Structures are given as structure tokens and as C-alpha cells.
Amino acid sequence: MNILDKIVADKRIEVELKKSIIPTTQLENSVLFDRKTNSLANALRNSTTGIIAEHKRRSPSKAVINQKVSVQDVAIGYQKAEVCGMSILTDGKYFGGSLDDLLLTRASVELPLLRKEFIIDEYQLLEAKAYGADVILLIAAVLTRDQIKSLSEFAKSLSLDVLLEVHNQEELEKSIMPTLDMLGVNNRNLKTFEVSTDISKSLSDQIPDDFVKVSESGISSIEAIKDLKQYGYKGFLIGENFMKTENPGTSAIEFIQNLK
Ligand SMILES: O=P(O)(O)OC[C@@H](O)[C@@H](O)c1c[nH]c2ccccc12
């Protein structure tokens, strides 16, 4: 079993356990559930920088990234940096995140927030809404076309933006459908952890223009972004490069100033 299969197998168990404790009505009755969402796709369309900054404490590819900073401080720092949106890892076992991280971020900033999670069930979309997300991630490598269709339709019915993530041509071909807002190319292979922005470049011309193109992972230089912009990318998802520093917000401020 590769790491992605393991994560998803654990996630299935986790979701079933949660379903048995917290009924969907409880999620639907939460204060944030009817909040008006803030579109990340629109923010990216109107931006010249396009940075989506991530909160990530650790990952399977890197044991410790940052266990010291508080999620609120990171969020406030990213907002000061004028990022377009923020991504919050909510998986606990492999990434050290939680839904509480999402909630605390929602309470701290107005930015569009992406729930970064391994989504396999509609229940997780209700959770995303209840904890203040504006955007959800669907990973093509772990979903069938039918699942992508039903999950993205359900997300749209909740006014959530959908970012669909692919890593190769086959995943891209099976996934294209009108209920997606953004297409993200993950430069990191989630099965082997190899990273290269060449994958974003090679897939770019196969992504129809109606979708906002996002390049994800392994981005650490202004040059890489300038280069990816030539290929039509409007969004750049950056985690480690900011999170590995003592003050991720300050690092994002400096980075974005140099990009302008
Ligand atoms: O820290 P990086 O290399 O800048 O990557 C951020 C983000 O793209 C990465 O965390 C990510 C992309 N897709 C994912 C899916 C699940 C978990 C994590 C991810």
C-alpha cells in the first residue's frame, strides 16, 4: 500500500466514527453553516500575485515543519501579506492539523479558506461548511469520476468553491466537468513525494480556460512563479516555504513584496 492509500483507508474509518457521534443535523445547525462564502476562484482571477498560503505543521514527506507557531498568528500574518486565500490542513494523523485549526482561522481572518483534506464523503463537506471553509479540495487520485461529480455538485449546493487536484494527464481527463472552479496541478507526487514544477508546465495547455489554474507544492522562488505564469497559472499554493520559517506571516510578506 502506498502512503496515499493508507491515508484514505484511515480516513474512511475516521469519517464513519465521526458520523456515528456527530449527526449531520448538528453540523447543519452550527452558527457558521449559513455564512456567506467568499470565492477563492474570484480572488485569484482578480489578483496579480495569486498566492494561496498554507498552514501545515508536519507532513508524511517532512516530519516536522513547524510545531511552534499558533494558527491564529500564522493566519493574521498571511492576511497582512495580502495573500488571496489560505489553505488549512485538517487531517490530524498525517499532517497534525484539525477542524479546530480551520475554526480558529475563520475567527481570525476574512480570507477565503480552503479545507485541505482527503475528501471521500459528503459528510466532510458539511463539516467544511460548519467550520468556516469557503473552498474544498478534491483529489482525483483517490476518487472516481462519479465521486468527483457527486461531491462537487454537493459542494456547489453549499456554495463552496471546488479545487480539483490532479497529478497526471489521465487524472485530468477523467475529472473535467463544469462543477469545478479551479484545477490544481500538484507538483508533488503523493505516492512517491517526488517534486517538480515541470508537471504543472506539461499539463497546462490541457486545462480548459474556464478553470482557474493553480500550481501546488514545491514552490519556493519568485522565478518559479514568474515562469508558471507564462503557462497560464493564476494561483500558487505554498506551504513549507513559509511554514518552515520562525514567522510564516513575515516570510509571506517579504515574498509577496518581491513578487509585486
Ligand atoms: O508545502 P508545499 O510543498 O508548498 O505544498 C503545499 C501544498 O501544495 C501541499 O501541502 C499539498 C498539495 N496537495 C495536497 C493534498 C493533501 C495534503 C497536502 C497537499
UniProtKB/TrEMBL annotation:
List its EC numbers: 4.1.1.48
Primary enzyme class: lyase
Q: Output this protein's name.
A: indole-3-glycerol-phosphate synthase
Pathway listed? Amino-acid biosynthesis; L-tryptophan biosynthesis; L-tryptophan from chorismate: step 4/5
Q: What Gene Ontology molecular function terms does this protein carry?
A: indole-3-glycerol-phosphate synthase activity; phosphoribosylanthranilate isomerase activity
Query: Which keywords annotate this record?
Result: Amino-acid biosynthesis, Aromatic amino acid biosynthesis, Decarboxylase, Lyase, Tryptophan biosynthesis
Residue span, Indole-3-glycerol phosphate synthase domain? 4-249
What is the originating organism of this protein?
Aquimarina aggregata
A Pfam short name? IGPS
Catalyses which reaction(s): 1-(2-carboxyphenylamino)-1-deoxy-D-ribulose 5-phosphate + H(+) = (1S,2R)-1-C-(indol-3-yl)glycerol 3-phosphate + CO2 + H2O
UniProt xrefs under Gene3D superfamilies? Aldolase class I
